[in-house]
Amino acid sequence: MENTSAAAILDKIKNSKNILINMDTRTDYDALCSSIVLNKFIQSLNIKSKVIHANKINQTFNRFDFQADITTETDISTLDLNLYDLIIFLDSGTKVHVSLNDKFLIPAHICSINIDHHVTNDMFGDLNYIHHIGSCCSVLYKFFKELSLAIPKEYLDIMAVGLLTDTGFFKFDSAKPEDFRIAADMLEQGVKIWEIISKLTSYEYIDQIRFKELVYRNLKANFNKKYAYSTITLKEIRDSNINMDKVFIRHSDLIKYIEGIDMAFVIAEVESDPKYYELSFRSKTPDVDVSKIAEIFGGGGHTTGAGASLYGVSSIEEALDIVLKKLAL
């Protein structure tokens, strides 16, 4: 399937009356910022729109005053979708990540637009705007430029946060030359890139320090097979007195730089009833493509950073056993 043109997508938006924007279930700045900007743009056209996010957005995302209007803790599977004539999915690398309900199916009778940047995206929308660059915010920037639209400074400030964080401040291989050019244009337009980086990196809550300690405490490494992993349960989080609202860092990023390993993963318990586990995979270089590993478990992502989920598993031990056996580790 080929990409839909930006003009065709804009035409569909303009001919809609009530639009639902579904933010990816994995909370990060790229999903958040792209959703905020697209919502502001649609409402500037005097079209009714609403952003939903299945999870809670924690306190670590309060470092910027985005004036966001997002309905949180609202999964798309719980809504009456007949109220909408268009659904836009943002930053979801696979259909699995549009809902926490693994039985959810995108309704065929309502037009859907899929805007994303992940290499694992299989163009699951009726209209698709997929570009394999560093962030969904970069894709949105490209969308505006393709339409020859002037991008308000407010939008640029917000999109810069998504671009910087999803490229790991340009440390990840997912950052393409186009992302650097976009960042340069943002600088020329007055975006204070270095101020954004400072806000994101200059401090962290004590809860995040405790969270790091937990990840390191459960760390296991196999240097013969060049992998490392850690596990996290909800009980351990409670016992360590960690407020997850104050934890921003991705747990697998903490262990991927260990000397002598090529791949790292973390299994984290997300819900206790029913049991639901998050799998997060990381590698140092594109030579170890963890998006292919994530696909084994129905997930996806980028070559050096990807994720998936496990449902209906009785314990963290069983989840670990499933992962190790499927990967023949």
TrEMBL record:
Pfam families: DHH (PF01368), DHHA1 (PF02272). Residues 224-326 form the DHHA1 domain. InterPro entries: DDH_dom, DHH_sf, DHHA1_dom, Oligoribo/pAp-PDE_c-di-AMP_PDE. One of its GO terms (molecular function) is nucleic acid binding. Residues 18-162 form the DDH domain. SUPFAM superfamilies: DHH phosphoesterases. Gene3D superfamilies: 3.10.310.30, inorganic pyrophosphatase (n-terminal core). PANTHER family: BIFUNCTIONAL OLIGORIBONUCLEASE AND PAP PHOSPHATASE NRNA (PTHR47618:SF1). This is DDH domain-containing protein. It comes from candidate division WWE3 bacterium RBG_16_37_10.
